[in-house]
Write a structure and sequence with these properties.
4-stranded antiparallel beta sheet; Jelly Rolls; globular; 7-stranded antiparallel beta sheet; alpha+beta
Amino acid sequence: MQDAQAMRAEVAQLQAAAIHALQAGKEDEAGQLWARVLERDASHGLALISLGKRAFRHGDLGRAQLAFERLVAADPGHTQGWINLALTHQGRKDEAAEQSAIDSALRTDPYDLVALILRANLLERQGQRHKAASVYGAVASVAPPLAALEPGMQGAVTHALQFRDRYDADFGSFLDGFLDNHYQAMAGENLQRFRESVDIMVARKRRYESQSMVFHYPGLVPLPILPRARFPWLDAIEAGTDAIRAEFLQVHAADRGFTPYLSYPPDIPHNQFAELNNSERWSAFHLIADGKPVPEHAARCPETMRLLAGAPQPDQPGRTPTAMFSLLAPRTRIPPHVGVSNVRLVTHLPLIIPERCGFRVGNETRDWNLGEGFVFDDTIEHEAWNDSDKLRVVLIFDIWHPDLTPPERAMITALTEGIQQFRDTAGEFAL
C-alpha cells in the first residue's frame, strides 16, 4: 500500500517536472522525464501523448505510432489519441490504418470536428468525391463560425466549405444537363416549382418553408394533417382493415422479418434517436422498401399488397414507394423529428391501438382509432408515443403529395433517376 502511494507520488513529481521543463523550452529534458514516468506507469496517458507528439514533430513516425497505439489501447475512448494515431498513419501513407483510426475517433465522438475533417480529407484523397462532400457537409454543420476557430483550423474548415460549394455547383450543372430533354418534352408546362426545388437542393437558392431533410419542393402548402375528403381511395383500404390486421397477426406470430426501425452505424450522429437506434422497441416489417416490394414479406400479405396498390404511391426509383407495419413497444416514445421530403405524404392506418397512445404533428395532437386512416406531412415536426403496457401497430405507407401535377411527378421521378446516376446510390429516402 505504502509502495503504491510512494509510486504515485513519484509519478506526480516527475509529471510536474516534465511539464515545467517543457514550459521552459527544455524539450529533451521533458522527454527524458516522460520516459521515466512510463517506466513507473506504462499506460500514463499524458506521458504517452506527450512522447508521441514529440516523436511526430521530429519525424519519428514509428515511435509516434507506438506511443499512440499504447495510449488508445489503455484508453479506447481517448478521441484525441485516435486522431493523433490517424495523423501518424497519414504521415506513413497507410490509408487503411488511417481510416481505422478515424473511424475509432468518430465512434468515441461522432461530432468531433477534427475527426470529421480527417475523414473528409481521406475520402477526398481517395477520389471518393460524393462521400467526401457528404462529410464536408457534416463539417460545415458542426463547425463554429470561422472567426471563433483557432487560426490553424480556419483553413481546414474554409476548404470544407469551398469543397461543398464546388460539389453543389457541379451537381447542379449535371442535373441541368440531365433534365434538359425532360424540360423540352414538357415545354409549356408550369414547372417553376420543380425548377426551384432543384435550385434549393443544390444550394443555388435558400429554403424558407418546410423542414424537409433531403429534398424540398416549394409551393406545397405545409398542412400537418390533410383533409380526409382529399383521399377517396383511402375508403377501400380502411374497409380492408380487418384483413390487413389478420395478415399482420400471422406474420407477427411467425416472428420472422422484423427489424429495428432505425439502424445507424456507431460513427454517425444519432441525435434524438440514440435511445431507439438498433432497438426492437421501435421495429418494422417492411412490405415495400426503397421502391420495390420485399418479395418474401409481400407474399405473406397478399391482401394488404392488393389494397396498397390502390393508393397513389410515389415513384422515386430506389427510394419510394415504401410501406411497412410499424410496431411501437409498450412505454416507448418516438422523439420529435421531421421527414426527408414533402413531395410525398405519409399515411397511417391504425391496426392495434391500446389506450394511452398518441400522435402529434405540428400543433395537432390526435389519437389513433382502429381502421381510421389519416394522411400527414412528415416534414412538419411530429412525434408518437405508446404509454400503455401493450403493443401498438400501424400500417405506414407513403403517397404522392396531391398538389403535385402529373408533369411535376414525372419530373421528380426523372430527377431521382438523375440523382442515382450522379451518385450511383439508392435507398436514401425513408419514412
